[in-house]
Amino acid sequence: MEERGALPVTKPLLATLHGQRQARPPVWLMRQAGRYLPEYRALRAEKGGFLALATDPVAAAEVTVQPIRRFGFDGAILFSDILMVPWALGQDLTFGAGEGPRLAPALADHALAALDRVPARLDPVYATVARVAGMLPADTTFLGFAGSPWTVATYMVAGQGSRDQEATRRYAYADPAAFGVIVGAIVAMTIEYLSAQIAAGVEAVQLFDSWAGSLSPEQFDRWVIAPNRAIVEGVRARHPGTPIIGFPKGAGGKLPAYAAGVAPDAIGLDETVDPAWAHAVLPAGMPVQGNLDPLALLTGGEALDRGIDRVLAAFGERPHVFNLGHGIGQHTPIAHVERLLARVRG
Ligand code: 1CP
Which residues belong to any copy of the Uroporphyrinogen decarboxylase (URO-D) domain (predicted)? Predict the structure, then answer.
């Protein structure tokens, strides 16, 4: 059995991330703490908004634990957001009703150097982590996370989410030196952020590169592989025993290059990846996480059952963490999540 400090790893999710395949895969779902849960919507309404919720350690800890109480997932993911890092880098962050998040000023027309950093904006997150660490069942693994630099930069440059990240892709071509400064600032802040989450009590971390799929191979090497590798090296130097999951959504044929270049402890696969191909091309023994289509979960019935069975069969020989290929949709019925758990756990 893998050793972590003096203690054997007995938590199924953590053991899997350390490379030990389980008879039934541990399971958690990306975005499991959120709007599909009535208890989340109630607390969010009471707090008056996302940021108020995410910066209140008592409330954020409660939201983190809500899906564990209801479903008993093997992993609890910290309730926070990838845009906390831009906020700490000095942009204003707002989550308006009915629209996506906004960051101001947008870096498309404003220099990063003109912003004042406020790292203390991350302090409530560490307080949340410490609180949650004392609330989880003994066999539940606690996951921290951050956005990857490319994905975070797309929001910082455009000031909001964008369909194909065009403004940021153009910026990266037009002024790679200035874009490199933005990415470098995100890398440095993210190493601090993840290290502090680990020091406060998370047991593994995930790097979400949600928009990794929008880059050409050469730009992918520069803005996805290199900065994620820098974060992995920086965090690993301080916390060598803590597994890091890399999730380069949409990377497709560039997944082997990502796995070799970033060398995360485990790799997340989105639902467009053929599991048999991934098994053949990824480094032997590297744990994989994924990759049920979130729309199969939303649909339920046969689509859900067949989808689960295919994922279970495909990853039968590797350390595997059962998850979706991307976040759970907000209109997903609770009963479908219960059905998923019953089937995955056999
Ligand atoms: O209640 C609300 O209205 C807010 C909705 C919401 C939630 C529940 C946002 C705004 N963020 C979150 C929490 C969140 N975000 C978590 C918490 C833990 C969990 O997984 O349960 C995590 C891991 C994230 C990560 C995140 N935020 C990503 C990466 C993963 C992904 O889904 O691709 C991204 C891209 C974001 C940005 C963001 N934050 C919120 C929204 C609506 C968005 C997407 C905006 C856009 O692209 O337009």
Answer: 26-35, 143-159
Give every residue of the chain whose pLDDT is below 70, as ranges: 1-8
Domains along the chain with CATH numbers: 3-345 (3.20.20.210)
pLDDT of residue 8: 66
Nearest Cα neighbor of 344 from 102, 13, 56 is 13
39/56 Cα distance (integer angstroms): 16
The ligand 1 atom nearest the CA atom of 34: 8
Six token digits for residue 141? 């693994």
d(CA 168, CA 211): 11
For atom 35 of ligand 1, the residue with the nearest CA is 210
Radius of gyration of the chain (CA): 19
Cβ–Cβ under 8 Å, residues 182 and 157: yes
Residue nearest to atom 4 of ligand 1 (CA): 50
Measured distance between the N- and C-terminal CA atoms of the chain, rounded to whole angstroms? 24
- What is the C-alpha separation between 45 and 52, in angstroms, rounded? 10
Give residue for tokens 């906020």.
87
Record the pTM: 0.96
Distance 224 CA to ligand 1 centre (A): 20
